[in-house]
Each structure stands twice: as C-alpha cells, then as structure tokens.
Amino acid sequence: MADQSTTTTTESMIMAALSTLTSSQLTSLSASLSAAFRRHNHHLASLLTSPTLFAHTLNHLYSLSLSEKSLLIARHLLSFLHLLTPFLFPLSSSSPVYIPSSNRVRLRDLDSVLLLLFFCEVRQHQPTILENVSPARWQGILKTYGSDTILGNLYTGFALSLSPYQVLGALVDLVVKCRRFVGSKGCDGVEAGKEVAASVDAVVALPSVESGGGVECVICKEEMSQGRDVCELPCQHKFHWKCVLPWLSKRNTCPCCRFLLPTDDVYGEIQRLWDAIVKLGLQI
C-alpha cells in the first residue's frame, strides 16, 4: 500500500506541474523527451543485438554493489529531471530553480542503467524467464523478449509516432519507476539536516558585480564597499567573495533566503529539483 501511495503521489505531482505548461512548451518538452527516449532505444537495441557489448555491460553490472546500482538509477532519474525543469522553471532572474548548464552522462553508465532497468522490467512481467538459465543465454532470451517492444519500436519510429501526451506519460512512468528503485535515500529526502556543498560548476559560474555600498554582507556583518567586486547568487543576494566561497563549500543555500544552488551530490540534486516540482504542483 505504501508503494502504491508513493506512486500515486509522484504521478499526481508531475502531472500537476506539467499542467502549468503552455501548448508550445508541452510540444517542445515532448520533442526533447522523444529525442532522449529514441537515443536510449538505440543504445538498448545495440546491447540486445551485440554479444560483445552485452557481455561487457553485464560484467560491469556484476561488478557493482547494490548501492552503486542505486546510484546509476539515481543519475538516470536526475538526467530526466534536468530535461524537465527548464520547461517548468524558465531561466530568468526570478526563477526559483537554478538549472545546471550541462548534464554529462558517461556512455558506459548509460548502457548499464538501461540494461539494469530492462532486467527489472522483464522480471516484473515474466518473473521466471531467466531462472535456471545460464547468463550466457540471457542475451538471446532478452533479445526475443524485446523484439516486440524495444526493437520493434525502434524500427517503426518510436517517439515520432507518439503524441506529446503519450511521451509525457512515458516520462511519468520512468520517474515513478526510478523513484521506486532509488528509494528513500534519493527522492524521498536526503538525511534530515544534512548540509551539502554547492556544485563546483555552479560556484565557478557565479558572477562578480559591483557593490553599491551601504549594504552589509550577512556572513561577516561588514559593509560591502562601494565599487568593489562582490559575488551575486541567482536569487540576487550579494556577498563578499571571501565570505561566500567557504560558505558554499559546505552548503548549497543562500545565507539570506535559503535559495538552493545545484550540488554535486546526486541524491541532494534530485531532492532539490523534486522539491521545486512538488512546490509548483501544490500551487495548482
């Protein structure tokens, strides 16, 4: 019952947030998602048809611990949240969410997570299909299983023939699935009270601006001298560089308003973006 409740809440929050988009925004988001899904279909099709690539990826999965597999899925979830949030929170000076400029995913990690999620899907629909079967035969079995879905969709133009709402439905299904696998360590919250450093890339991208004078740096409680370069966060609050850099090396919040900057911690970043989506959904 708890899993069903979490699934329902996740679906309703995403759908509520998506309902704020205009028709043109939905079309653009659908196109971005279609491209991602189509690219992932190509990767999975390659895994299922190449014995060498399948064996290499399977061996890599075997080498990973359970927590490392969870991290793979968390990164996959985060990549889709990074695709979604720019449409929900367009970049502007008043945006409540800071969107990272890039989200790089290693090819080996992408192959591994796609195969891992495919294993989970197969097990969900046919729990015994790989039981008492040598791993050497798994590729053939999975290729046959996927021929009517993954491989079939690939050659009939998956995501080109789907409507925007069908593509968004696929997004919701993926987020729900990934949240379920990541569990409470990820989207349901990082450890209460845990402070996470701001992303190095986000800190490097912060601009220097001139201080108008007469304004206090809330960290050191000293005035920011007129004409001196100070750091401005995306929320437009300003601080001495020498004060804010040590602050952001320990926490990713603005000292004034608690605005959240990106973090290099995958679970913390998922939580940051998910909280923003939930807040938007609750406003509907």
Automatic annotation (TrEMBL):
PANTHER family: E3 UBIQUITIN-PROTEIN LIGASE SGR9, AMYLOPLASTIC, RING FINGER AND PROTEASE ASSOCIATED DOMAIN-CONTAINING
Organism whose genome encodes this protein: Spinacia oleracea
GO molecular function, one term: ubiquitin protein ligase activity
Lineage, broadest ranks: Eukaryota, Viridiplantae, Streptophyta, Embryophyta, Tracheophyta
Gene: LOC110793995
Pfam family, one: zf-RING_2
Keywords assigned by UniProt, alphabetized: Metal-binding, Zinc, Zinc-finger
SUPFAM superfamilies on file: RING/U-box
One GO BP annotation of this record: ubiquitin-dependent protein catabolic process
Protein name, UniProt field: E3 ubiquitin-protein ligase SGR9, amyloplastic
Taxonomic superkingdom: Eukaryota
